[in-house]
Specification:
- With 156 residues, the chain is mainly α.
- The protein is 42% helix and 3% strand.
- It has a domain of 106 residues: Orthogonal Bundle (Cytochrome Bc1 Complex, Chain D, domain 2).
- Strands 1-2 form a two-stranded parallel ribbon.
- The protein is globular.
């Protein structure tokens, strides 16, 4: 399977962090953002990551689907545990070198967000942090499955 150059760079940096324990402070970095979504997710340093209001209007087509939640758990275990940890509290093995730290997906702050907002955040990522966009890696259905599993994490 071929990976895009940007993913190779991200995975190389993450591997360096895991192997050498470097702290990466990217809070003052600026990414080249495309005009389609640059205004919607860039927020100044120190501000909370807030999805645009339009995200709240997105309806989760898999809400309450137990099979979707199981699939979301599998996706989470393979792709998200490194940073967010097994239980989703942001203490994965790769989190030690990240600044800012990964979100606690079980927190009231995350759980009170709409399904659409969480879906949007998984889709877009949050430059300049380590949270990458999963748009090209996961289908819409898979991202909704992750949303369902994140909701399950909040119940534990």
């Amino acid at each position: 399977m071929k990976f895009p150059r940007s993913l190779k760079i991200i995975y190389t940096l993450l591997a360096s962090v895991l192997l050498f324990g470097f702290t990466i402070d990217v809070s003052n970095s600026h990414s080249a953002l495309n005009s389609e979504n640059s205004q919607s997710f860039y927020q100044p340093q120190g501000k909370k990551w807030v999805a645009p209001a339009v995200a709240d209007k997105l309806v989760n087509p898999l809400k309450g689907n137990a099979e979707a939640t199981k699939k979301g758990k599998r996706l989470f275990q393979v792709n998200c545990v490194t940073c967010h940890g097994e239980s989703g509290v942001g203490n994965g093995p790769g989190s030690a070198g990240l600044n800012p730290k990964p979100a606690d997906l079980t927190s009231k702050e995350v759980q009170k967000q709409s399904d659409g907002a969480i879906f949007w955040k998984i889709t877009t990522g949050f430059p300049p942090t380590a949270m990458i966009s999963w748009r090209s890696r996961f289908s819409n259905k898979e991202r909704w499955e992750l949303v369902d599993y994140i909701r399950e994490l909040g119940k534990k």
